Amino acid sequence: MRIVITGCAGFIGSQLASRLLDLGHSLAGIDNFDETLYPAALHRSHLASLRDRSQFSFFEGDILDEGLLSQVLAGSDVVVHLAALAGVRPSLSQARRYMRVNVEGTQGLLDVCARAGVRRIVFASSSSVYGARSKVPFAECDDVSAPASPYAASKRAGELLCATHCHLHQAAVCALRFFTVYGPHQRPEMAIAKFARLILDGAPVPVFGRGDSARDYTYVDDILDGILGAIERTAQPVEPFRIYNLGGAQTTSLTRLLQLLEAALGRAADIRWLDEQPGDVPLTCADTSRSVSELGYAPKVPMEEGIRRYCEWLKRQK
Fold first, then answer.
1. Which one, 35, 125, 249, 301, has least CB within 10 Å?
2. Domain 2-182+219-249+285-299 classification at class level
3. Are 309 and 185 in contact (CB under 8 A)?
């Protein structure tokens, strides 16, 4: 197939591109190297191993540029829409910008898909749409009417736009709610990457809250398996629009995460406890039964092994 990945130079997008090329697909990627969370040079480094592959073409530009999107999508079979402004905390001060890129950008992409005849779409959503809740696990049918941040609201809006698009244009969309993805090439401001780097450097580690918040961390290889399953599912969808959780099937507290990092790095963390941050949620926990039965999803990397792999990779980089 010819597949398009928006956000191709990102943490997940670049590794998905490599996997799809290995499977023999033709691939077009688009990215604008946005520097909201980390330098453009780091984005560009993610593409270094892809640029010489004959089945890969790359377009530098913005998803708000519908003319460029029309060029990229021409003759394509599937779009995997990963491009977005990510991060809960920066969205608190840049809410309008997040809505423009994540909401308006998604609608523009859907419009181009309709004109180009691309009817198979995979949309990257987020577990943040579930908001602050204590009922676990989080299921796709749960109420998501109270997102706790502008970022979360933008992802929920994207889901709704995709549902409307399916109704109007006979398309098939799988919306994937990612649960805290981690692994090699992870964004440097995210907890695991930030904590590990500071521990290695012997620097103070700022930790928000009391250490009892918990996340369903998901290793990037498992997420890639879920995306591949969703691409296949769009050929024979259960419903035109369908939401799937992609989680790691294991919830880890912040205190336990720090212990795992200390063990994997062989160093103690100099922890500095800080007040909780607005927009953060106390718990995430995925019900993956729908993904298991309909996408063939089966997370294989437990937290202990994933942290070991990430820390070994990080030490090699340093």
1. 35
2. alpha beta
3. no
